[in-house]
Design a protein that fits this description.
42% of the residues lie in helices and 15% in strands. It is α+β, with helices and mostly antiparallel strands. It has two domains: 104 residues, Phosphorylase Kinase, domain 1 (2-Layer Sandwich), CATH 3.30.200; 193 residues, Aminoglycoside 3'-phosphotransferase, Chain: A, domain 2 (Alpha-Beta Complex), CATH 3.90.1200.10. A hairpin with a 3-residue loop joins strand 4 and strand 5. The longest helix has 26 residues. The chain is globular, with a radius of gyration of 20 Å.
Length: 320
């Protein structure tokens, strides 16, 4: 339960308002509210205006896009209300305080991670620095391994095929488009499923001062899935094309080592060797799945680099 102080009904006692960022496609804003009287206290308020006149920066202003976006905010509130309490310090997320879901006005009030010691943001990481985020991801996946994502997206990630028919149609014809459904099915029907963050890019991670601890935000696309989808999206956002290839073995080894350690604490009945074998084999499929989305959504995107396309080719070869 939210305290009386940290509730939507008592926001008037916060006397300072600071814009943190505007939401994607003009759907609202994230603001920091601070009470500077006595001991300084602050919270984060996410305000969504659920209107269909949003302006997508890449032109995807469709009914599919609007419906998906609205559901994503509802899912995020559900995650904070009912699921976030399961996350420990190894996969730190903001504390939930309060929320409201009205017809055209959605609000979410959560902990200010800056005030809690996670004030650093990074636009890139070295492989050594990236380990702290890989560790977070492994512990998050272990926490929710083989748990049904009730109230969340049945299939997590913002790019999964069932919610992206417009982008699939826009793709150029070729082997990837031809095999898109089968690639998605391989990931969706994996024996081992977890709950994925769904938008695990570097911009959604907040670090402490010396980069030894990290917390994650933005759970609009959290839901069921293979953990490799989060992994490829994460490393593609924080490492260069060269580093992704150079450190591929180390990245996978470190992630699975952390996942094994975390599962011993959260779910010791999981047959880990079988899980690791399956997910390693699905690693190139996760790259192919994300590349499929980018080729339809933004075919000149920088993440469609040689490393992503090499793994996509590998997945297609295995399909044939």
């Amino acid at each position: 339960m939210a305290s009386t102080l940290y509730s939507l009904d008592h926001l008037s006692q916060f006397d300072k308002r600071e814009l943190v960022q505007e939401l994607w496609s003009g759907y609202g804003e994230i603001v920091r509210l601070t009470n500077e009287l006595g001991e300084k206290q602050s919270v984060i308020l996410k305000k969504i205006s659920a209107v269909s006149t949003a302006n997508h920066p890449r032109g995807w202003n469709t009914s599919n896009s609007h419906s998906r976006k609205l559901k994503s905010y509802q899912v995020e509130i559900e995650f904070y209300k009912k699921w976030s309490i399961k996350c420990n310090n190894a996969c730190r997320v903001p504390l939930y305080f309060d929320s409201s879901l009205e017809e055209n006005n959605i609000q979410l009030l959560i902990e200010d991670l800056d005030q809690s010691g996670f004030s650093r943001r990074k636009s890139s990481l070295s492989y050594r620095e990236a380990k702290v985020v890989l560790r977070w991801l492994a512990h998050f996946h272990a926490t929710f391994m083989n748990i049904e994502p009730k109230g969340l997206w049945k299939e997590g990630t913002y790019w999964h095929l069932e919610t992206r028919p417009d982008e699939l149609e826009a793709m150029p014809n070729g082997e990837l488009k031809k095999n898109a459904k089968d690639i998605a099915t391989c990931l969706k029907q994996a024996d081992f499923q977890t709950i994925v963050h769904g938008d695990a890019k570097l911009a959604n991670f907040c670090f402490n001062e010396d980069l030894t601890e990290v917390a994650a935000v933005d759970f609009q696309y959290v839901g069921g899935g293979c953990g490799m989808k989060d992994l490829v999206y994460l490393i593609g956002s924080c490492l260069t094309e060269k580093e992704c290839g150079q450190y591929e073995s180390e990245i996978l080894d470190f992630y699975f080592l952390e996942l094994k350690s975390a599962l011993k604490l959260t779910n010791g009945t999981i047959e880990f060797d079988a899980l690791e074998q399956e997910w390693r084999a699905l690693y190139p499929f996760a790259w192919a799945d994300f590349s499929r989305f980018l080729l339809g959504w933004s075919p000149m995107h920088q993440k469609l680099n040689g490393y992503a396309l090499k793994n996509t080719k590998k997945a297609l070869q295995q399909m044939s």
